[in-house]
Amino acid sequence: MIVLISNFVLMNKNIVLLLISILFLTSCKKEQKTAEAAVKMQEFVMNISAYCKADNPDFLVIPQNGIQLAFNNTNIEEGLNSSFLNAIDGFGVEEIFYNGKYKVDSERLNMLQQLKTQKPILVADYVKDDSNISDDIEKNSSNNFLCFPRSKDNYYYTRIPDFVINENINDITQLSEAKNFLYLLNPENYNSKNEYLNALKATNFDIILIDLFFNDEELTNADIESLKTKTNGGKRLVIAYMNVGSAENYRYYWKNDWKLHQPSWLRKKYAGYKDEFYVAFWDTEWQHIIYGNDASYVKKIINAGFNGTYLDNVEAYYFLYNK
């Protein structure tokens, strides 16, 4: 009986050791893939920037989230990645001080405090309780971050706030001159393009960050030019949102027969966003959709007269292989 128990314990110990080995190897493989994907995303962003700035040296390229890419090997301890920093004009980030409730993302905040001496920082926090908006503004302002606090009814960037932070009449010709910004991604509250454009025109935000499209209609050069003057007469920047890390099935480029893994670079469902799929962004077909030719997404943005583009989901390099 004692021999049987000893054999059972030994067998289970070996199984545990085997499982630990498998988990360790899996973790190492995942880390390696993530590191390789980070390099590919850095290259992707830099190539988009090079393409845009070859057309217009003043065109702004602002990645959203994925700020780890600004550091060598995505590690703050290894110093800044100068090639990446030279290719971009600012950083956009979400949920630094508030993610519903007050919840400081200390790791990313530490990174941003290093990066703010290099580039302007645009923060879009989600503040459920309106009484905390002033606190969010103060915390961002004390760090010299531009702030766009989204209230409970504005999680999906559907509403123009009824106030402007640090409103001014200055002409804004570069990102570093801006004191505030508007992030209006989804125009679902507007019944027509004219109503939408008029609502944007009637504001004094230094930067307007919007989509290239009103519903399925591309905004024209005349539309964008009409938005470049604030109500108070000062000039402002108009920036176009573009998703580079995930494909959206309502975009002009989407084909009816596409689904997960068809084409093969549609890699993973985007949790919480049923219309999006993380992509193998290094795939030539996806990159051809985004930049490098006259039919590409960013070329449409350039032709429409935007001052720059806001690259969303650059952190896809991480979420392709991690939760």
What does this entry look like structurally?
The longest helix is centred in the first third of the chain and has 54 residues, at 2-55. The relative contact order is 0.14. Helices cover 35% and strands 19% of the residues. The strands form 4 sheets. Strands 1-13-9-6-5 form a 5-stranded parallel β-sheet, covered by helices on one side. A 3-stranded parallel β-sheet has the order 2-3-4, covered by helices on one side. It has a 3-stranded antiparallel β-sheet with strand order 10-12-11, with no helix packed on it. It is α/β, with parallel strands linked by helices and 323 residues long. The termini are far apart. It has one domain (36-319).
What keyword list fits this structure?
19% strand, 323 residues, single chain, alpha/beta
Short characterization:
With 323 residues, this protein is of the alpha/beta class. The chain is built from nine helices and 13 strands.
Instruction: Supply the number of structural domains.
Output: 1
Give the spatial strand order of the biggest sheet: 1-13-9-6-5
Largest sheet: 5 strands, parallel
* Unreliable segments of 5+ consecutive residues: none
Let me know the number of strands: 13
Give the overall shape, derived from the CA principal axes: globular
Radius of gyration: 22 Å
Q: Write down the secondary-structure element order.
A: HEHEHEHEEHEEEHEEEEHHEH
Q: Please state the average pLDDT score.
A: 93
Number of H/I helices: 9
| Category by helix and strand content | alpha/beta
